[in-house]
Amino acid sequence: ACDKYPSTLGNSLRFIFEHVKAGREVVSQTAGDMAARDIRTHLSRIYPLSVIASLSPLIGLLGTVVGMIEAFGLVALYGASILSDSISKALITTAAGLIIAAPAIALYFIIKNRIMKLASLVEVEVENVITTLYLEGDSTDMNTPGSKEEKHETKL
């Protein structure tokens, strides 16, 4: 199933089952590290969306400032009648920046929230598997510290 449906959870579970004899602490730590790396990779993929959402209003504001400088330059040359047209053109860049930023930042946080929820689910499921294997499972089938076979050998 892990090979058929590759995922963060699948990769972690494959590691757990392949290294079950390594001991609970080692398997738990390594599986957790693997999942955390995978989650960071997913988060890094949406980072450009955050950059776009953050920069687009600033670029729009820059356009407004440039337009306002031009407008006031025209007022100095031709009088106030040309001012409203130039200001209107200048504000278009601010509107464009906000039109880009609002959905981009909303989408970024929606995707980030989903990734974090999935990360929490993976963490819970990995911990459930580890708990089942090491604490609730029949330890006689595994050569793990604390198994019945080792306890018997220790007594001899």
Write the layout of secondary structure elements.
Blueprint: H1 8-18, H2 24-78, H3 83-136, H4 148-155
Helix pairs in contact: 1-2, 1-3, 2-3
Molecular structure report:
α1 (8-18) packs antiparallel against α2 (24-78), α1 (8-18) runs parallel beside α3 and α2 (24-78) packs antiparallel against α3 (83-136). The protein has helices at 8-18, 24-78, 83-136, 148-155. The chain is rod-shaped. It has 156 residues and is an all-alpha fold.
Run of helices and strands: HHHH
Low-confidence parts, pLDDT < 50 over ≥5 residues? 139-156
CA-based gyration radius: 29 Å
Structural class: mainly alpha
Helical content band = over 70%
β-strand number: 0
Q: Please tally the helical runs, counting DSSP H or I stretches of 4 or more residues.
A: 4
Shape: rod-shaped
Q: Termini, distance in Å?
A: 41 Å
Strand content range: under 5%
Give a short summary of the structure.
The chain is mainly alpha-helical. It is built from four helices and no strands.
Give structural attributes:
mainly alpha, disordered C terminus, 4 helices, 156 residues
